[in-house]
Amino acid sequence: MGRKNRNVNKFAQRKREKKEQERNPKEKPAGDTRKHYEDIVRENAAFEEYYKTQKVCPEEEWPAFLSALKENLPTTFRITGSKCEADALMNIVKSKYFSELLNVRLQVEGKEEGEEIKPFNLPWYPGGLAWQLRLSRMDIRRNETLYRLHNFLVAETAAGGVSRQETVSMIPPVVLDVKPHHKVLDMCAAPGSKTAQLIEFLHAEEDKMPTGFVMANDVDNSRCYMLVHQAKRLNSPCILITNHDSAVMPSITVTDEQNPGSTKQLKFDRILCDVPCSGDATLRKNPDIWLKWSTGNGNNLHGIQYRVLRRGCELLALGGRLVYSTCSFNPIENEAVVHRLLQDAGESVKLVDVTDMLPGLKHHKGMTYWKPASKDMVFYENFEEVPEKWQTVVRPQMFPPKPEDLPKYNLDRCIRILPHHQDTGGFFVAVFEKVSPLPWEKDQKETTEVAEKPTEEKKEPPKKRRRLGGYKEDPFVFFSGDTEDVFPSIKEYYDLNAEFDSKCLLTRCYVGKKKNIYLVSPLVKDVVQKNEANIKIINTGVKTFVRCDNKNMMCPFRLSQEGLASIVPFVGAKRRVRILKEDLILVLQNDNPSKPPELHRFTEHTQQLVKDLATGSCILEFQDTESSLQLTLVGWRGVHSLRAYTATSDTVHYLRLLGADFSKYDVNKFKKDAPENEDESEAKPEAEAMEVTEPSAEQNGSKEGEVQSTSS
Ligand SMILES: C[S@@+](CC[C@H](N)C(=O)[O-])C[C@H]1O[C@@H](n2cnc3c(N)ncnc32)[C@H](O)[C@@H]1O
């Protein structure tokens, strides 16, 4: 989908360099001047002086604060996916992988006997789905006793069953309180770990397409493709990825539901403003910050952080909620930005106390006093003290409120998390609610009721524009309706019911054979159609149908696993197979795509179901009789065979959930003859390549060469 972006090659390059370095450990990759993390001296006198002066923590906590900062981060992860899959995976994690931790002891300084490693369930994470282990990623990777746990984390991250995310980074989406009907904007979204959570919360009501959507934006074009990668894992038709400077994010136009002939400006119910920051609270994860830390970083970012927050407040609906967050300790990037906004916004925006949404989370309240400093480490009580040469850097708006004004702002409602509180990175979160229009919005009309020009269903395609500093995206071409050339055959073959809106399907080309067909929600479609000319849309839509010209299938499109959950409610009984556990295991354990299991190997039950099923793409549905586990997979009914249409990572995930044998994928890389283990797949766009092959000629009972298939 879309154009390949050059950054993908950067990832590939790094991967090649890493492999090369493993082969020749003495040689550094060309041009790499970075220090190895373990060689970095974790000290910086200016950092210590700055934060001691700011009183970022009580004096008695300082040694604990500093020593926690010098340690590697513990491993944390969340279980994701549908409720029943998440429940099943959680049981497996607890019973199988956590029990392996009993065999490992943690060496603690000053103690002779190693300590037991008890996994810690984050009490404030909804559904108890998040875990923290007292082991760094390196500890897990290097310990043979834990190779299964390591394999589990790598494989489930690839399959989307697990998301490895730092504890504190999980907080902003939780306190944003996203519901399925919310229109959500993630202003600075890449690489997208928080976007993923926002989408998970949006889809909280399973089996129902949310009426809201998530617009994930980032100014960096190549980082937008990290968001595309994240979105692909989540299979949501309710996400739109855009590429703008969010400080000047254009307004979005949508159809006015009260008056469908008109349009209005969209205001978002929820906005995440996870701004670019100095990142000094991520020192545990990024030790190289010890080498380059300076007060200048925070001062330089204050302006853009404020402008992004201010634009966020403008785009926020009345009664809506906005979360401002950074991974910085610096009050100049945190409370000073919040205070500046509250000063400008007057009574229209207020800080909300969300501590009741975070039970058990240790934190400090927001600071109410701080001292801006210039790069030469001189601290100032007020702007009048700032020498002229620093006045463009240390700005008047960076100073704290006067003591008598403090009650107006409630800065103590901000949340500060320090590394020693619960062995995490540091973080800052402030939650705003908009109670009335901003002072400068008062004269503007809430809704711009513009009479919509009647549009023809099929417009002449606009010429594609080349974008400066970015990539030309393929167009978003929506189906005109049920008469769209390929639709009647899809509708007939999959027995789609009348509720399915074919106008929500789209392709990424105007001319030529349709290849992949994507699905979006009605609201996302409206946003795309009304704004395509003004906003840079990088990606939207979940791949639902894939061209598969195969003489054994009456329809030229097969189903795609990515879009299956969205289309399933509309598919009729004639393309569904209620498969038994042993049969599902049989198809999943087959790893030779050109030799799928023949029908006679299945139970009589499944053979009977498949007997009258026309060959081609179908849905395999499994309902466990002993638990609430339900699985829905894309299958293929060949002339003499039945197979599942899953990527390897998904296959392992399903076999794990079914309690079946997947040992051939669970390799102990410490054993001499083990095949070289793939790199960890987290945040690596190139790892998304599907290992799915089209049904072969043999499998469909036709002679080699007769199948004309198009790869996905
Ligand atoms: C702290 S990171 C966001 C992390 C992300 N929310 C997550 O959880 O994965 C900040 C992001 O802001 C982006 N950014 C920087 N300036 C921006 C701007 N003016 N508008 C939009 N995005 C911006 C950067 O490219 C970067 O990806």
From TrEMBL:
The entry's keywords: Methyltransferase, Nucleus, RNA-binding, S-adenosyl-L-methionine, Transferase, tRNA processing, tRNA-binding
Location in the cell: Nucleus
Domain of life: Eukaryota
Amino acids binding S-adenosyl-L-methionine: 188-194, 218, 245, 274
PROSITE patterns: NOL1_NOP2_SUN (PS01153), SAM_MT_RSMB_NOP (PS51686)
Active site as annotated: 327
Gene3D superfamilies the UniProt entry points to: Vaccinia Virus protein VP39
EC number: 2.1.1.203
Record carries keyword tRNA processing: yes
Predominant place of localization: nucleus
Basic residues: bias regions: 1-17
Feature: compositional bias, Basic and acidic residues: 18-36, 443-460
UniProt domain SAM-dependent MTase RsmB/NOP-type: residue ranges: 65-435
Spans annotated as Disordered: 1-36, 443-468, 672-712
Enzyme class: transferase
Similarity field: Belongs to the class I-like SAM-binding methyltransferase superfamily. RsmB/NOP family.
PANTHER family: NCL1 YEAST -RELATED NOL1/NOP2/FMU SUN DOMAIN-CONTAINING, RNA CYTOSINE-C(5)-METHYLTRANSFERASE NSUN2-RELATED
Protein known as: tRNA (cytosine(34)-C(5))-methyltransferase
Taxonomic lineage of the native organism: Eukaryota, Metazoa, Ecdysozoa, Arthropoda, Hexapoda
